[in-house]
Amino acid sequence: MDYTPHTDEQVAQMLETIGVHAFEELLQTIPDELKGRSLDLPAGLSESEVLSLCESIALPNRSLREVVSFLGFGAYHHVIPTVAEALASRGEWLTPYTPYQAEASQGTLQMIYEFQTMVCELMQMDLANASLYDGASSLSEAAVLALRTSHRPRLLIAETVHPSSRQVVATYLSGFPCVIQEIPHTNGVTDLEALAAALKDDVAAVLMQQPNVFGVLEPTEQASQLAHRVGALFIASVSPISLGLLKPPGAYGTDIAVAEGRCLGSPVAYGGPGLGLFATTHALIRKVPGRLVGCTVDESGRRGFTLTLQTREQHIRREKATSNICTNEGWLALRATIFLSLLGPQGLKELAFLNLQNAHELFERLREFPFIQPAFDQPFFNEFTIRCLNGSRIEELNRKLLNAGIMGGLPLRPWYPTLADASVWCVTEMVSREHMDHLIEVLKTV
Amino acid sequence: MLIPEELQYTKTHEWAKQAGEEILVGITAHAQEELRDVVYVELPSVGKVIKQGESTAVVESVKAAFDIYAPVSGTVTRTNTALTKSPQLVNHDCYGQGWFFALKPSQPGELNSLFTAEEYAKLLQQSV
User: Do B65 and A320 touch (CB under 8 A)?
Assistant: First the structure.
């Protein structure tokens, strides 16, 4: 049965109206190999046959429960308290979608309000929204906001921002009349002289990541001052766990702080889902994308929660809205809220310290190998970049490590050709002394 | 409904008032009544060059957002920054403290294309 309700005449009429000759023309951006595939399905299977088929397909996967992982690069393996999992699985929390009616579902609204408050405290920013799809879309929304409010045409983005995030920003802005200029790095950090030279009064914003994609700490304070000197906004993409120790973005003049928040209570599950954190200053409150929940009192003076400043949103502002996002990542925001409330500021600080300590311990132990050299001489948090010398290839090394149950660092070759022998290693609190000992022993044999 | 004699009007419910070399612009009593409680006003930047009929400011009420169009072409010379903190001035005193922006006209002849108070009153009557 065909589920398309339109007649051929109606379809022809619609195509004519928008100036397209054939329906297929609308599909030209889809790669050919994905088009026109017919579903050649085998005969049906019983439930138990399907289960064992799926199990056999899943079997070659290596779970983080059975291997030690030193992978980070945007997706981080952190502790998830059992309480968080249990609470987040309750039916009341598992099923709700983002609020649409301004005052309905007080429980959901209160949770989002608490989430926003925690994000503000974490980032030291004036306000935070109810979350966006992921860190990369938060960064892109921040870029759009800067372009639309400043009416300036140029964005400067550090080359040390995660390559996938930069790709998402470019895709997001592909229909936008603007120029995205990348700022190079020197010795693993953004070249401030290059940044200063590129900063003219046509720049809408400077986008940076802290710590950056190599794990290195960026001179965000100087960069933000440089940006403000020409009236550009400073946008920082930060690591939430690192904020247990590092200066929060609000402390170095950040106008919009964004983050990938999956590390707060949600697992690394193949690539998704993510949780976009988005926080900004009072000056930009009317331009914030997505949902905002406010706290107020009802007629009898009782505390209540409501969607607020909704005139920002596209269903009221229409084409004048700065964003067309009217949703949030509710369930992951809930998990982040539970995670942060369980840890508290002191717990987060201790967690961050564990990460810092573990990463630095492994860094010191790795550099003792004659074929390993630090790629940069810079301070870092829980990730660092090393080079493999004397022709030993990181990809080959990683294969040997995987045979011993270890996932080694991520090779930078695909994104940074000048760093073809480098790899980024991440050491979170999930890596124990025994895990490190195991890695060192295996490395001695290769 | 108050429609001051000395002002000129547009069909999109803005008023224009000659004050020396400048034209002050705001919205009419009818417009603010239709909008209900104004909660936010987005003002243009000073120095912005605009054409007659071009969207120059945005006014938001609790339920909607509307464009404010320039009654004549010119350059924005001042904006009423008091509206940023007290947008309700648009409701309380739309012909006085609730003005939006001032501009220096580049085509003074365009003023003749605007409605008089009498013409605007007739327009309102027709649209009811």
Answer: yes
Architecture in CATH of A82-339: 3-Layer(aba) Sandwich (3.40)
CB–CB contact B64 A311 (8 Å): yes
Task: Report CA torsion sign: A110, A116, A120, A123.
Answer: positive
Q: Which two tokens stand for residue A374?
A: 């630090």
Enclosing domain of residue B25: 8-105
Q: Which domain CATH number covers B87?
A: 2.40.50.100
* Integer Cα distance of A261 and A238 in angstroms: 10
Q: How many CB atoms are located within 10 Å of the residue B99 CB?
A: 23
CA distance B73 to chain A (A): 20
pLDDT of residue A306: 95
User: Taking CA atoms, what residue in B is nearest to A309?
Assistant: B62
Across the interface, do B65 and A311 touch by the CB < 8 Å criterion?
Answer: yes
The domain total for chain B is 1
Residue B113 lies in a domain: no
pLDDT band with cut points at 50, 70 and 90 for residue B128: low
ipTM at complex level: 0.75
Is residue B97 domain-resident? yes
Query: What is the pTM for the complete model shown?
Result: 0.89
Work out the average pLDDT over A428-439: 97
Chain B interface disruption, residue of A282, A313, A320, most B CBs within 10 A: A320
CATH topology of domain A68-78+344-445: Aspartate Aminotransferase, domain 1 (3.90.1150)
Q: What are the residues of chain B with a beta carbon less than 8 Å away from any beta carbon of chain A? A: 39-40, 42, 58, 60-65, 67
* Residue of B43, B55, B60, B62 for testing the chain A interface, max A β-carbons within 10 Å: B60
The C-alpha of B7 sits at a distance from chain A's nearest C-alpha, in angstroms, of 29
Q: CA–CA separation, A371 vs A392, rounded Å?
A: 8
Domain boundaries, chain A: 68-78+344-445, 82-339
Full strand arrangement of the beta sheet holding A372-374: A372-374, A383-388, A422-426, A410-411
